[in-house]
Design goal:
By secondary structure, the protein is mainly alpha-helical. The chain contains 17 helices and no strands. Helix 1 packs across helix 7, helix 6 packs antiparallel against helix 13 (321-357) and helix 16 runs antiparallel to helix 17 (453-474). It is globular, with a radius of gyration of 22 Å.
Length: 476
């Protein structure tokens, strides 16, 4: 057991200072809101693809996914089948619609179909959801920092938030995307190092790990049961995962903003579908790390499954390597947090401030306002993460974050489906459908697994909005 040494601390500090300074430097030359929030619509698709993967997985992949496999098996990987299918659907249907006009946010598409009220309602739903889900992600990142420094979680959260804010505030989306790309490569390297360390630390290496895990049933990959309360079945992964991804990557400004920053719709499609393949590989890698940790610790019980990989990094790895892997944890966290700050600020600026102020979307004033909104959302995310601390002992952070998003994603996806598939419903009918879809999921959330939240919410929204529109037209 090595603990966290001076060498580890030097490596971590050098990384944090270097990545923050580089991210801030990338923001030079920005003069308008389009530069700050959309990178001048000129970012290469490869960088955007890596940024999408880094944004959606973040610390929850690095820390929580190994914990999921440690406590269960490989069935979580079934989600990635649906994730890829959902991306293909978005690339075919949603992205061409986004590129028909110079849209600045995902919700501008709803304004064109229903009106300004629908845009503001859906944008507000995104803001609340992103605040709650990414506050949980920020908390997960504070776990290793608290273990290293013995700081309280609240202080650890504040430090991470401040460092991420520094380059996000200065660099905008260009800094977010390019830093994400580097950070993703770093934390994949960290997972590879963990795999090698387990090979050297467990008697018999990975051959023994996989043999003992197979005997314990931990290598199960597919579950064809029809239990709707079980979250990781093949049906839930394929259908629920696909619909969840259609909502998260087709209607969530966090991801759509990156796709709108590509040069062409073709580049955007390549970035999105490519990210689905990358996510499959990434999830498998981190699930296998969890299986290896189960063999290393011989199935020992832990208070939080999210702590297992973090504790292994701090306590079991040699000096220098520990610092590198902790830097990987921060890389994963900062990529997601910076994306949230920038996307929340962009939605606030374009969906609310620009129309209220009556200015053009690319005005220099949007740049100034966007930076102020970035500051405000950073403070709210830090506050939300601190508020999650008392709840963290009751559940896994990854499942909380995904569950929070899934509650409202159905309503958002249903609204986009109403706009694409129907012509009759007006704005009031659409908003009514969204509200009923979300309320239905909330009322049934304890009866079904979270992967079914989105299909249920989307169906209710589509049917209720369509019927409300039909009733309204008959009463005219």
């Amino acid at each position: 057991m090595t603990g966290f040494t001076t060498l580890d601390l030097l490596i971590l500090v050098a990384y944090l200072i270097g990545i923050t300074a580089w991210g801030a430097w990338l923001g030079r030359g920005q003069t308008t809101g389009a530069d700050y929030f959309l990178g001048g619509r000129s970012l290469p698709w490869g960088a955007v693809m890596l940024s999408v993967v880094a944004t959606e997985t973040s610390t929850l992949t690095f820390l929580s996914i190994p914990g999921v496999a440690y406590a269960g098996s490989l069935v979580f990987l079934q989600l990635t089948i649906g994730y890829l299918a959902g991306r293909i659907a978005i690339a075919s249907v949603f992205l061409p619609a986004y590129y028909k006009g110079e849209l600045s946010t995902a919700y501008a598409l709803l304004e064109a179909r229903f009106g300004e009220g629908a845009r503001r309602v859906t944008s507000a739903i995104f803001m609340v959801t992103r605040l709650l889900a990414d506050s949980v992600r920020l908390f997960a990142t504070a776990i290793p920092l608290a273990l290293i420094t013995d700081w309280p979680y609240a202080l650890s959260i504040a430090v991470i938030g401040a460092l991420t804010l520094a380059y996000t505030y200065c660099g905008g989306i260009r800094a977010v995307v390019w830093v994400d790309s580097v950070q993703m490569a770093l934390y994949l390297l960290g997972a590879g190092i963990a795999m090698v360390t387990i090979q050297l630390s467990v008697p018999g290496g990975w051959s023994h790990v996989l043999s003992s895990a197979g005997e314990a049933g931990k290598l199960q990959l597919l579950d064809f049961s029809w239990n709707l309360s079980a979250p990781y079945t093949f049906l839930a992964g394929l259908a629920g995962g696909a619909v969840f991804t259609m909502a998260s990557h087709g209607t969530d400004q966090l991801i759509v903003q990156r796709l709108l920053a590509c040069r062409t719709v073709r580049d955007s499609q390549k970035a999105l579908v490519g990210s689905g393949v990358a996510v499959m590989f990434q999830f498998l890698l981190f699930l296998l790390v969890g299986i290896g940790l189960w063999a290393f610790y011989e199935g020992q019980a832990f208070e939080r499954t999210d702590e297992i990989f973090a504790r292994f990094i701090v306590e079991e790895l040699p000096a220098g390597v520990t610092g590198l892997l902790i830097a990987c944890v921060f890389a994963a966290a900062m990529s997601s947090l910076s994306s949230s700050m920038n996307s929340l600020a962009s939605a606030t600026a374009y969906d609310y401030w620009v129309p209220i102020a009556g200015i053009t979307g690319n005005d220099v004033r949007v740049l100034r306002a966007g930076k102020l909104f970035t500051l405000a959302w950073a403070g709210l995310l830090v506050g939300g993460a601190i508020a999650f601390i008392p709840l963290s002992r009751q559940t896994s952070a990854v499942e909380v974050a995904l569950g929070v998003a899934a509650v409202v994603y159905g309503g958002l996806l249903g609204a986009f489906a109403l706009g694409a598939l129907t012509k009759r419903p007006g704005q009031r009918a659409a908003i009514f459908g969204i509200a009923l879809g979300i309320l239905t999921v909330l009322s049934l959330r304890n009866e079904i697994a979270w992967l079914w939240y989105v299909p249920l919410g989307a169906t209710v929204t589509l049917v209720a909005g369509g019927l409300a529109g039909l009733a309204a037209s008959r009463n005219r």
